[in-house]
Structures are given as C-alpha cells and as structure tokens.
What does this fold into?
Amino acid sequence: MCFSIQEKIKKVPTRLWVLTAIICAGIFLQTYNLHNWLDFGDDQVHDAILIEEVVRGESPWPLLGPDMSDSGESGGRDNRFHIGPAYYYMQIASARIFGSELENLAYPDLLFSILSIPLLYFFLKKYFSASLSLVLAGLYATSFYSLNSSHSAWNPHLIPFFAILFLLAVYEFVSAGSKTRWTWVALLGIALGIGIQLHAIMLVLMPLFLFLIFIYLPWKDRGAWKKCLAVALVAIVLNSPQIISELRTDFSNTKVFFKSAQRTKEKSRLVDKVAKNIDCHFQANGHIISGAGESNCQFLFANLFEQKKPEGYLREISNPLTAVKVMAAFMFSFFGYFLVVRNYREADRRKKIFISIVSLYILLAFLIMIPVVEEPLRYFIHLFFVPYIFLGLMIRQLSKKYSVNPSLLTAVSVAALAVLNIYSIYPTIKELSLGARSSQNAIVLGEMEKIADYIIAESDPEKTAYFNSAKKCANFYRPLAYVAERRGFDLIKDKENGETPSDANIFYLTRSDKSGVENNLENAEAKKFGQVVVYKFSPLEIGQ
It folds into this structure.
C-alpha cells in the first residue's frame, strides 16, 4: 500500500508540485492576519448591514448589487447605477455558512483570488512554456499589487479570476471551433454572466469583446451560433435578478447608466484624454508587476499634451528616482505592446489565436477607459495579467535573439522584480504590524475594534457616546459606529447643534500628525491608535 502511494507520488510531474507550492504561498500571504488587517470603510459597512438583514430574514435577496460611486445624481446610493447582485449573493452564502463576522464576508474575494493563481498559470501555458508560466504565476501570487488588495471585501477583487476564465474559455471556443466542448461553452457563459456583475467596466468590455468574437466565429463554423446562443442564455439566467428589477422599475437603473455614460468628469480635448489613458496604462503595467510607483496615476506624460506650462512636469521628473520609475514603466510597456503586435504573426495557429484574443481585449479595454480614465491604479485590475504576458514575451524574445540562457534571464528578471515587490510590501507590512494602517477612506478592522473598545471602556457604565472628528477622519464614523453597535453600544454623531446632553461622553478623532492642533485639544485626554488619535472631552471643551 505504502509502495503504491510512493509510486503515484513519484509520477506527479515536478511542475505540479511547484504550482502547489506557489498556491500554498499565495494562500499563506493572502490569509495572514486577515481579520486585523482587513480594510474597513463605508462600502464594507453598507454591504455588511445589507448581508446581515438578508441572513436574518429581515430583507429579501437583493435584485441589484453594489453601486458605482461616480454614477447618477446627488441623493445617495439609491440614485446611482447598480451592477448585478452576484457579489452580494456570494457574500450571503459565505455569511450563512461561516457566520456574518466581517472577515467572513471577504471569503469570496479570498477564494477567487487564490483560484486565480492556478487559472493564470493554465492560461499562460497556452502560449508560454510550463516553466515560464510557473514563474509568471509565482510572481503574480506574491506581488504587491495582488497582496495589497487581498485583505478587503470589494467586488472588483473577483475580476482577475473571472477575466482569465473568460479569456481562457474564449480561447478554447475559438481554437477548437466546431469541436468546442459544451463544458467550455457553459464556463464562458458563467464567466460572462458573473463578470459583468463585478464592475461597470466589465459590463461594457466583456459583451463588446464577445460580440466581436461571435461575429467572427460563424464565418469559420456555421454551427457556432448554437453555442453562442447557449453562452448568452447562461449569462441571461445569471443576470435574471437584475433583469427582473429593470422590468419592475421601467429600466430606471439602465437609464442612470446611460446618463452617467454621457457625463464626463471634466471637459478636455480628446488628445488630453488619450494621453492620460496612455499614462495610466503604462504606469499600471509597471505598478502591477513590480509594486513600484504610486498607487494613483500621476499623469506625468499627459502634462506635455495639455495646454499648460511644462515647468511642473519637469520639476516632478527632476527627482532621479522618479525619473527612473517613469522611464522604466514607459520602456516596459512600450516594448510589451510592441511584442504583442509583433507576435501576431505567429506561425503556430493556437499561439496566434492566444495573441489575437489578448490584443483585442487590451485594445477594447483601452478604448473604453478613454472617457472614464481613473486615477487609482486599482481600477486597472481587469488588465492585471497584461504585464506578466509582457514579461514572458520579453524573456522569450531576448533568449531567442541573443541566445541568452532563458533560465538565467528568467532568474535575473524574477530576482529584480522580487526585490522591487518586497521593497513595496515592507512598509505596508510594517504599518499593519504596528496597527498604523489607515487612510482617509478606510481603516483596518483591528485598529477600528481597538478604538471602539477604548470608547466603550471610557464610557462605562453608559452605553452611549457622541462622536466627532477631523475632516480627514470623517469617513471613520460609520465603520466605528457599526463595530460599536455589534458590541451593544450606541455611537452617535455629534452635530454640534446644542442637542448633545451636557453630561455626555464625547470623543474626537484625528490623525496623529494633527495632534494638538484642532479644537485646542492639547490638554484633553488622548489615546493613540496607530495613525489615529482619540480625544475624550466634555461639551464645554468643544467651543474653547
């Protein structure tokens, strides 16, 4: 028996052991200290309340999903455009299985983030060698970009898995032609049906991409229309809740979408928008694979196209480190796109199909982003795989043209990128370890719980306290009030309108770098939590 097991283990290919090790490393890094390091902001509070109400049977399953913050008119979330509810359904399922604790609501993000690692490997292996595909998948699993979004419950985090599943299924559909298995047809329908419910960009990108593919297929296979129809039917079934909502509300959500699409954030020339889009795509490619650069697009090259004086631009790139980062991202992206186009002439049919699919996806994604280009590079998550393809093409090209040992070239590339990613990861890990990870929009759950426990302890035996904050901490109120409520404590926002009881417990939050500056709080009782300071004072001290 033992001999039989040993023989079977020996027959397992080495690459599968390596892939297993990569997946295990990804699991460890993405689950490490998940509860305490979980990003917790207003969106997470909104989703958590909704999920809890459904799980307790107080509300029906939602027909619409998360809202798009830059859509609609004023008036709150209800007036914005909402994508489909697939993400909420996953969170509801997770809450029913594991409980409605906050970290459990992030399990769908965690699951599909981990599954995206082997899926990326199998996708890349359609073009590259197994060993190179393993290296690229390993870089992705341990990248700063991937890990920085792993400790958060946010619907776009599922995009990497469903984007790759979508492209892999399209590849199998096109390359197999009339011999396409129905399994791939179903998977393509599932990837489309769920993918368009993850973000508005995917809602446009996926159907447009597939429409162009489906126009092409019947020319090669007259029977393809049946499978194309099956894909559409699966996607429609998965989006049936949203369709029902539209029929009930006279397509009000769709109307909001088209109104938002017609509105742009700023009036500028087309050339300026294209320049900004190029800027962000180039910076995103460099940031995704190396972690280098800022998390927001800086529009460095775009400033040259705008009708402005170039002094500001020249001043920004005068810093040697900034200049190196900018030029590295530019060169990496330029040669990456060049090689994608150049390799379109692949002699191998299946490799040519792979490059064609990737090229079409990149082109459409670029065009869609022109009118709505976003500064945060996290919004380029639907293109997360692109820089890994660029790197693979570069290693492949250099090893062929200059007869360089591909293993040596790969090792040098991986070592350089690993150093850059570690350099980017270390400050974040240090902040999290010290409980000092917070921004203007969100704060980690562990830090928020410590603040809530402090307020509750300082208010004892009262079960109510009032809250106020500096402007930079204004978004902390809802998460803090939610955590306190789960502990049986009522945290009320102090409106400073005279309604606060004279004997109330009042707490004021500000960033630690603002300590002793606002509201004459130098002599107030204070407690520091990472980058946040909590002051306790009486109503009399507010006006001093």
